[in-house]
Specification:
A 5-stranded mixed sheet has the order 5-2-6-7-8, with helices on one face. Strands 1-4-3 form a 3-stranded mixed sheet, with helices on one face. It is elongated and about 55 Å long. The protein has 3 helices and 8 strands, in the order αββββαββββα. The protein is of the alpha/beta class and 202 residues long.
Length: 202
Amino acid sequence: MMLSRYLMLMGLVALGACGSSPVVNYYALDDGVIAAARGASPTVLVTSASVPEALDRPQMVVRAADSRLVLSEQQRWAEPLRAAIPRLVAARLGEALDSSGVLAVPAGAPQFDADFRLALHVQQFDVQSDGAVDLDLSWVLKPHNGKAIVGRSRIHEKAAEVTAGVTSTPVTVSERVAAQRRALGRAALEIAAEVRRHGGAR
């Protein structure tokens, strides 16, 4: 009888511990919105994205004022950034070019012939403690015929508009993610300008 009571008590303790475990929230870098394009060209394959090891992890990372990187165990990415970044850039690039022929191709997947191939190399993708995002993205755009174009997009994106004289509320995780999304979108616009400058087609 004593043993059964003891086991029951330990079971209740275990259930209580499970009930108090912090909830883990998962976030997608993209917003799930796919804009309809009127054309199918130019075609661009976004083939890869390299991401610094400090950021290439499930936990969201915030850079503190003293250069510390603060990892959140409760706020996590739903997929690796090295997979999410090419897909988001491809979506924004397709919108800018009004083309349905802009696709992100996973590593190792079959690749079709395209007007351009685009490789992304993230140098910096820091979220500051105030929610602002600093993006330093180098990229290589290779036309089907011609020399590769090497570019670099350096972007600072605020998490939210701050009105003078008004005390701002703390920035939410969703607002930080939205700022990261906008920063990559601005980089995609710069890449789109290069695609247009080089003809946009074979």
